[in-house]
Amino acid sequence: MRTYILRRLGLAVLILLGASFVTFLLTRIIPSDPAMLWVGRFATPQQIEAARERLGLNHPWYVQYTRYIGGLFRGDLGVSVRTHKPVGRELLARLPASLELIAVGMAVGLIAGIVLGCLAAARPHSLFDQVTRFLSVGGVALPQFWFAMILQLIFGRILGILPLAGRMDLRLELSYPVHSVSGFYLIDALMSGNWVALQDVFLHLILPAATLAAYPIGMSARLVRAKMIEVLNEDYIRTARAFGVHDLRVFTRHALRNAIGPVVTLSAISLVYTLVGTFLVESIFAWPGIGSYTAQAILSNDVSVILGVTLLVASMTVVFNLAADLGLALLDPRIRLE
Amino acid sequence: MRIWIRRAARNPLLVAGAAGLVIFVVVAALSDWIQPFPKDSQGATHIENALRSPSGTHLFGTDVLGRDVFSLVVAGSRISLVAGVSTAVGILCIGLTLGLTAGFIGGWLSELIMRITDLFLSFPSLLLAMAITAALGPSLRNAMIAVAITWWPSYCRLTRGEVLGLREKEFVESARAIGASTGRIMFRHVLPNCFAPIFVTMMLDVGLIILTTSSLSFLGLGAQPPTPEWGLLVTTGRTQFLTHWWVTTFPGLALFFVVLSFSLVGEGLRELLDPKMRKAGKGK
Amino acid sequence: MRLAKKWLAAIGILALLAAGLAPMAAGQTTGVYAYSDQVLLHFDPAEIWSVNIVWFNVYERLLRYYPAEDRFEPVLATSYEVSDDGLEWTFQIRQGVKFHTGNPLDAAAVKGCIERTKSLGLGVSYIWDPVERIEVTGPYTVKFTLKKPVAFDLVVSSLAGVLIYDPAYSDTAWYEAGNDSGTGPYRFVSNKDLEEATIRKFEEYWRGWEPGQFDAVIFKSVPDDSTRRLLLETGAVDFTNRLANEMLEAVEANPNLEVYKATVWTGFLFFFNTLKPPLDDVLVRKALAYTIPYDEIIQGALLGLGEQAHGYVMKTLWGHSDAVRAYTYDPAVARALLEQAGYPDGGFKLVFTYNLGDEKERRAGELWKSKLMEFNIELDIRAMPWDAQIGLAHDPDPARRQDVFHMYAWPLSPSPIPLLTDNFATQDPPLLNVSYYSNPTVDALLQYANDIAGIDREGASAILAEVQHMVIDDVPIVPIADLQEAVIRQASLVGPDEAFINPAYPRVVDWYQLRRK
Q1: Contact check, Cβ <8 Å, C390/A36
Q2: Minimal Cα–Cα distance from B187 to chain A, Å?
Q3: Residue A33 falls inside a structural domain
Q4: The domain C263-484 belongs to what CATH superfamily?
Q5: In this complex, which chains have at least 3 CB pairs below 8 Å with chain A?
Q6: Which residue from B186, B204, B185, B230 is spatially nearest to B91, judged by alpha carbons?
Q7: Which residues of A are less than 8 Å from C230 in CB distance?
Q8: I want to staple C266 with a disulfide (CB 3.0 to 4.6 A). Which of A65, C106, C161, C410 is the partner?
Q9: pTM of the entire structure?
Q10: DSSP of B84-107, one letter per residue?
Q11: Which residues span the domain enclosing A240?
Q12: Which candidate from A11, A29, A149 shows the least CB-CB separation from B248?
């Protein structure tokens, strides 16, 4: 077990290095001048040159890359060309907002999907089953950015019952400020007994989380249904039924446990997919997370931020994949880690 | 063959998806004739006609520069079809070749290919695609290249898996016995035998490829104006969206429709070909 | 059931708030400004060159300029005198003014802070370059000796670089920690990254306070237009600096809100690459100038928020001359010129770059493209991030650069000369002159105008008009429109218009002059 983990982590480091290298090269392909972005419109040639020096742009690319990697080991992810602030700090400050959104979206999606999948598997080929399958395919096929806007239109503008954007109403943010300890407003508001804020934060979470939940619902409903049907037809299940074991017990005890496995694996993958999907969704809902931050960075060619986000997301992918594999091994003793 | 068709016909999802695909291909093929205002999709503008709501003349209304949204959406179907299929072909070419090589030849080459595959797979695909398009310069062609680069790894892995299973089979032995070269064996004998599941997966994925390309255009990194690509249309309608909903809604709906059709067909095919699924109906 | 309870609670709370119970510190009047971009960038007053909406209320200048009346308001300087040769400017510094740090304002402090700004060389400190020497000739008298008689009063009332602060505090880190050493009506309290800032009343402000003024102001970055609009409509914010032009109609109809269309001294320009065929031929450039649908662009791309430009100096900025020719959309003339240039059927392609994400620029490009189609000229529209765009324009090989660079331009001080210099004076290597235009006569004239502007503004204006006539005939740059921006506020706010509409200080709100009814 330990050697397995160590090996995986070693591989992970190699992957991260490779990812950073590829991203770095990509940002060097375009003939661009980040120094001009740094100094702004009214800068003199001397100031531009000084900025180039400061940003290390006068060195050849391999020197710049080496310096960047060196900085990584000291925890220095460079400085954003647009905001002049350290990338690491900005990413860390914005990460909880994204994580909160993703956690809620995925939780809702997975649970709803599992329930739907089970119910559909219980009555294969029925109308309910067909509808569920349609919805599950639809959830994965849905263009997230478009769906977000439609939800905004229907619930925000036409019906007017849910807020359009942001994490919290501005007035409430001023009069009932949330003391941010964890960065997760739901938790912070709860812990400080700030019910007004809790209400408001919850309402603001609904639409973006619903948008992000579509993919996990689709994926897990389809997967659970498929696995459940497969498992339900296994001989030992039939035997249990033949012996008169109660249906529900069969369902939960035996079938579900076997079906959970692939869901765990795919949760890890869809978590990262969702994390990336937030690039689109966060921009539309003006959600102050790393998604909207990255979208802005890509549009303004903010190299350090792009590199920082790539490394962050790639690390999360690797970690979650490892966690999923380990979790799977724990859940299912038949699986052996090699 | 007829048994398959009959089975297929009994699967409502597959039928619905197939119907959707047929509509899509027909519209794309006949797009020049279906568009009521074909000049609009090439860039013509009519300011005086801006932001009209859907009506008899303009089924989907007009956008902020007065262009007929229905024509734009129809023209976009051809763009999405061509983009989706070309990218898919590109992915298959790279993925199949590398997967076959890795699976069949093995050795250090296989290791190298698989490590590169792992590297690319650890990258969240949209982020990599965004970085590649930003690097190459925003354009539809570069977006397609970026999507192809992010997708080939999973096909490489898939192919390799299939090939590993077939490597020891008899027909391979016999082909070797009669002196066929490795390349010939790979492409003439092994490939046709493992193609089916790969094709099904691709069918499921073409829709998602189109979706990813549109997402890149939505961010401004893909198709450039005035190309009537659906993702780009959705983003250009964004600032007027809450007061003039039609500019964004219809292109997005078209996109959803097409991706859904591909996914339904893929899903249906998978069910059709998977023996375990077929048992399910009879079990209860 | 739980959900229903939640809704009831939400409605109850909202009703309470609607009833006007603002449970902040009792009796405090707080203003809120929702801004479309980030609210802060720099903290050190020697470095601040942009986004003044916060710092305008914290730091002050010697003079403040009102272009509509061409009037200078004495702020930290009560009066000034100019010598006959325009080289000596003597300012009387206001007495009884305190910095937020507690130190008093005097001539020595003014000299000290300007010298610090100059020596640090950050931001737009080069704005002080015309100054040869600063002398303290009395406890409250400062004399500037200039190298050339430039318009120094315009310099000291600039948008940035000329803020007066306490030179005793010279550590940038102290400023970055959130402290300020200004003299303004408000002092800096706190910020949340670059997205939010709070300022609070400085009790000892030299103008004094009356009841009803704002005790505190919060600046918040709200990039999404729909959210800003909603905040305005629900009364949650007092001010916002712009809304997507499509929303303005609906907002204008709202009796609780006031919409102003303010001139912001920002030009909407197409720069032609004069070093690359076919645009190296002035006939082709002229022809293209007649193919641009100016009115359509103002209606369709700017959605009405702009006026056709006359020349390269924006309306209401001195140096502007309505006499400068404005091109119009005239396909017949364009065709004749194209034929004369040797392209009777068009047949060439132009690469047009604009800033990725900018809706106005994109639409302008699309509108022009659609017109060019009729001349058989292909416009290849490309969105690029700003630094890639400028990087391309600085490519050592002119043939690789774009053909048309779509860009905005705006001045740093209320003077058109640096603006024109940036745009079309000879630059080698090019900086912002991305048409690569080089005309020694123009360069000389601009230099001369700059040198006499201090003593002879009229003369300088006449020269600038001459320069514009020359350049518009060569048309390396087509000035499409002078932009306007919508400024929207609550109708319940009372105060002079110039407190928030002054093109010399765009998007800035002088909260000290406002009150809530």
Answers
A1: yes
A2: 31
A3: no
A4: Dipeptide-binding Protein; Domain 3 (3.10.105.10)
A5: B, C
A6: B204
A7: 164
A8: C410
A9: 0.86
A10: HHHHHHHHHHHHHHHHHIIIII-H
A11: 93-300
A12: A149
**The dihedral formed by the CA atoms of A112, A115, A118 and A122, expressed in degrees to the nearest 10:** -120
Query: Which residues of chain A have a CB within 8 Å of the CB of C432?
Result: 41
Residue A123 Ramachandran class (φ > 0 left, ψ -120 to 50 alpha, else beta): beta
> How close, in Å, is residue B284 to chain A by CA atoms?
9
Q: Are strands C131-138 and C141-146 parallel, antiparallel or unpaired?
A: antiparallel
C305's CB contacts (< 8 A; 6+ apart) are: C245, C248, C261, C483, C484, C485, C486
CB contact under 8 A, C230 and A288: no
Work out the minimum CA distance from C386 to partner chain B, whole angstroms. Answer: 12
Residues B213, B146: contact at Cβ < 8 Å?
A: no
In chain C, list all ranges with CATH 3.40.190.10: 26-256+492-517
User: What is the interface pTM, i.e. ipTM, of the complex?
Assistant: 0.84
Q: How many CB atoms lie within 10 A of CB A184?
A: 20
CA dihedral A179, A184, A185, A187 (to 10 degrees): -90
> Is there a contact between A149 and B134 if contact means CB atoms under 8 Å apart?
no
How many CB atoms sit inside 10 A of residue A167's CB? 21
Query: Which residues, 6 or more positions from B267, have their beta carbon under 8 angstroms from its beta carbon?
Result: A133, A137, A222, B13, B14, B17, B204
Chain C CB within 8 Å of residue B139 CB:
yes
- Tens digits of per-residue pLDDT, C321-377? 999 999 999 999 999 999 999 998 888 999 999 998 888 999 999 999 999 999 999
Give every CB contact of residue C392 below 8 A, 6+ residues apart in sequence.
A31, C353, C384, C400, C401, C402
- What is the CATH number that goes with domain C26-256+492-517? 3.40.190.10
- Please give the radius of gyration of chain C, using alpha carbons only, rounded to the nearest integer: 25
User: How far is C58 from B186, CA to CA, in rounded Å?
Assistant: 75
Contact B65 C366 (CB under 8 A): yes
Chains in contact with chain C (at least 3 beta-carbon pairs closer than 8 A): A, B
C-beta atoms of C300 and B239 within 8 A: no
Q: How do beta strands C71-74 and C378-384 pair?
A: unpaired
Residue A221's CATH number: 1.10.3720.10
Q: How far is B147 from chain C (nearest CA, A)?
A: 19
Q: How confident is the model at residue A119 (pLDDT cuts 50, 70, 90)?
A: confident
Enclosing H/E stretch for C516: strand C515-516
Domain count, chain A: 1
Residue of B nearest to C225 (CA): B239
Q: Does A84 touch chain C (CB under 8 A)?
A: yes
> Residue B123 and residue A301: Cβ atoms within 8 Å?
no
CB burial of A117-142 (b: ≥16 within 10 Å; e: otherwise) equals bbbbbbebbeeebbebbbbbbbbbbb
Q: Distance (Å, rounded) from C-alpha C392 to C-alpha C384?
A: 10
Cβ contact (<8 Å) for B138 and C383? yes
Reported as a pLDDT band with limits 50, 70 and 90, residue A251 is low
- Cα distance from N-terminal residue to C-terminal residue, chain A: 9
Cα separations (Å) of C307 from C215, C242, C318, C456? Answer: 38, 17, 17, 29
Strands (E) in chain A, as ranges, are none
Q: How far apart are alpha carbons C164 and A233 in whole angstroms?
A: 82
Q: Omega of the bond prior to C278 within 30 degrees of 0, cis?
A: yes
Q: Give the separation between CA C290 and CA C306, rounded to whole angstroms.
A: 19
Distance, CA of B233 to CA of B67 (rounded, Å): 11
pLDDT attached to residue B237: 86
**Percentage of chain C lying above the pLDDT 70 cut:** 95
Our CA-based measurement puts residue C101 at a distance from the nearest CA of chain A, in whole angstroms, of 27
Residue from A137, A159, A275, A305 whose CB has the most chain B CBs within 10 Å, to mutate: A137
Nearest to B225 among C244, C246, C381 (CB): C381
